């Protein structure tokens, strides 16, 4: 007969404190913040995009939504709710994959704004996929093993694998963020007009904050405060997803600069891009070499249109 969820959780906890009151307070505080941020992010996803499609929209929505079940899984696991630990662990694992890999896909999907090198883009995407298999699969195996055998090598194996995957995903996001910074620097050098240095500084600060948040998770894990770390992770990821809106706004400003919509690189125009003309009128514009496009851009695109493009009421970007 399987052990109860709290028994399984106890085998995974190290140095969280002698008081259950402290643990309860930690869980209540961090889960409340994480759930609040998650709900806000989900609402922002739907109100910030004109078209609910594209890799960026879906990865952002999936990563934001997964925060809620991730916190719920740990609450059910750590407290005597009567739920079987197999259900708790399954909920934790599925939401963890969606949250972490979803966050990486968010980073990858906006990389097109500053980078046109398809080899690097494909390489980053392959890196995300390979890391997902290398880290998520072994972690799932040892965590399920810890449920089947709460004491012994399985719990120790999960502790080791948990640290390895946290470092691995931290390095992965560091690589992607470094590519952003480097490509943004090169792009700003080509467009010295305006205040490029201010934009660059803001991008650097945001990426440094994201990196520090990742490092904070790793430090808490290596110190041994597992019960704290598992609830800090969803809070950190919710904050990083919130910063996505600030980052995307800056990257759009840099990428569009003084160009109109047709001068943008193809990798930029393909983000959440759909035909702006109905099926019946397709033949009217069929002879054009390049058709106008409609962007399902976030709200900050609408407030800051390009000086060489006018946005109509339907959201069509037209060149003069």
From TrEMBL:
Chain intervals for the UniProt region annotation (Disordered): 301-320
InterPro entries named among the record's database cross-references: DUF7703
Cytoplasm as UniProt keyword: no
Transmembrane domains' residue ranges: 25-49, 56-77, 83-108, 120-144, 164-182, 203-228
Biased composition (Polar residues): 309-320
PANTHER family xref list: INTEGRAL MEMBRANE PROTEIN, INTEGRAL MEMBRANE PROTEIN (AFU_ORTHOLOGUE AFUA_1G05950)-RELATED
Residue ranges constituting the DUF7703 domain according to the UniProt record: 22-259
Keyword annotations: Membrane, Transmembrane, Transmembrane helix
Cited Pfam families: DUF7703
The protein, known as: DUF7703 domain-containing protein
